Give the backbone structure.
Amino acid sequence: MLRSAAPGATSAITLIPKYFTGVVPPTPLVADTETDACPTATRALLRFADDIGRAVGYDREQNGRLIQDIFPVESSERAQVSTSSKVMLGSHTETAFHPHKPRYVVLLCLRGDANAATTYADVHEIVQHLSFEAVDVLQTGEFVTTVDPSFMTNGEPDARVTVTPLTKKQSGWVLVYDELLMSGTSTRAANALAELHVAVKRATKQVVLADGDLLVIDNDRAVHGRTPFIPRYDGTDRWLKRALVVTSLPTDDILGRVIQTRL
């Protein structure tokens, strides 16, 4: 039913076709953090996630659930959240605002949709489209981002968090980015961010996940999003399970595996 494989050491994304071959029930219609409609797939994804790190949850997102279900929900079909459908989901680093961002985002496709492509862009290609001046400015703290809407579904407060979009490490560039929530706090930062938006679009590629496929996104190296698609709400819609994976658990702000940072 499953096999284990680690993400490629130099890959922004790693695709494992037909990773899961279990029976998949109809796609749910309503988000429910208490019930698991496909526990076999949840166990498969959790096992994979814990092979490459540790799956974690965030208490402000899906009540801290370790394995999250992603399928179109009618009430959020035009929102900038994972359960949307009829809008382009903007390119972003997962939880760009958070001090404990996941290193990997792992998506297990239970039911695919040929019209719903996952978009991604590799920071090493993005940087090739930037001017030297923009690269310099993007390595400063002259940028802020706000909180993902998925962390405010129960009326939780927003926040403005200072971020540095580009950081050069021994292993290469690390990118923190949110197409829709990030802004510059100076004229030169705003100009550099505008250049970064263009560079991300130029570097963006697409992958369409089929039934059973597993996709690993390196959250340090790749930004990701999704193209629009038309949901049917009849049990046959696109359905993913998602794990957010850290390479080591934080030493604070965590209860079990659920991160509880207050911004």
